[in-house]
Amino acid sequence: MRRRTITPIFPPPGYNLTIPDWPVEQFMLRIGKGCSDYADKFEKLTEVFEADRFQMKEKGIPPKVRKYIFSIKEQLRRGVLTFEYLERRTSVTIPKKKATKK
């Protein structure tokens, strides 16, 4: 069996993610999907990025919204989505998978 070598990326994507000084309401409104309804649960935007699923659950955020916020955070960390893109957009939505007929 042949072994593959993977060259690591340095610095790892997302570890040098700079979070802008946006109000939480603005960020939640830009990512869309009703997240702006829960913007009052956080004081600062860094609190959104540092919160884990248990902390969000304690704040009363429903599972679908938590999952969506985590997916946006991961896309920002990986560089798939940028804050500059969010700044130009009013809201971003992830396309849903098409249902297949049986």
TrEMBL record:
GO cellular component terms, alphabetically, are: mitochondrion
Task: Tell me, in one coarse class, where this protein mainly resides.
Answer: mitochondrion
Locate the Small ribosomal subunit protein mS41 SAM domain: which residues?
Answer: 24-79
Record localization: Mitochondrion
**Keywords in alphabetical order:** Mitochondrion
* UniProt superkingdom: Eukaryota
Regarding protein family, the annotation reads: Belongs to the mitochondrion-specific ribosomal protein mS41 family.
Name the chain's protein.
Small ribosomal subunit protein mS41
Organism, per UniProt?
A: Paramecium primaurelia
